[in-house]
Amino acid sequence: MSYKILEKEEIAPSVHRMNIDAPDVAKAAKAGQFIILRIDETGERIPLTIADFDPEAGTVAIIFQEMGKTTKQLATLGAGDVLEDFVGPLGTPADVRKLGTVILVGGGVGVAPIYPQAKAYTEAGNKVISIIGARNEELLILEKEMGEASSELYIATDDGSKGHHGFVTDIMKNILDSDEKVDRVVIVGPPIMMKVGAGVAAPYDVEILVSLNSIMVDGTGMCGGCRVTVGGETKFTCVDGPEFDAREVDFIQLMNRLSMYRGEEAEATEEYEHKCRCGLH
Ligand code: FES
Asked: Does the Cβ of 217 fall within 6 Å of ligand 1?
């Protein structure tokens, strides 16, 4: 079975949004879940969070940043091309229900998984305060969509080119310090941002959830590649998560495991780019 790319757009430098024709995935998808795709039969399997889905149209949107070999190769594809595999939805859906007020914090491409959550929490009757951030204005994604899906939207950039000059977690702290009664905080982004965010929110009387992006291979709980320690126990991100109680997550172990394959990944990327330069692709 193959999956057709219907649309592709570069929404920020090196960040792409693709709409894929995948009716079965679209019908079953819920906020917080992910897919695993493979470009061709020899390709690496990469997990990507579902950035949007339309059960009626049978389409699923993914957003990815060009980082390693596979995402660079994926970025060369466009409308009309097909993917070999597009498996999902995988993972446990986000625990979305009516709670009251929910703060959603998304950093970098972490805004992509936050978007379906913003829609789902709003639909469930919550007040949704979203805080999105990026290194600079150019790299900020889904601002319009997040504005429409949220009750309030705040923006932070590291260089101050848009919104608050600083971190998303500064804005989160200001809200937690205010009179606003917050029931839950959900943080999605680079592991270091989730670790810092969890640390900032920890002293407050609020539930804190993070969506983890550990290394995944099969995505079905068989290989153990995605294991993380949560509350002193080993959990598999692909089936037990990706969402976990932030206070319980061993972020140091997560970051160590993520950096384990960096050398091999750099080599594969270098080889791929060399072949591109030589016209071998
Ligand atoms: S990806 Fe293999 S167990 Fe989770």
From this structure: yes
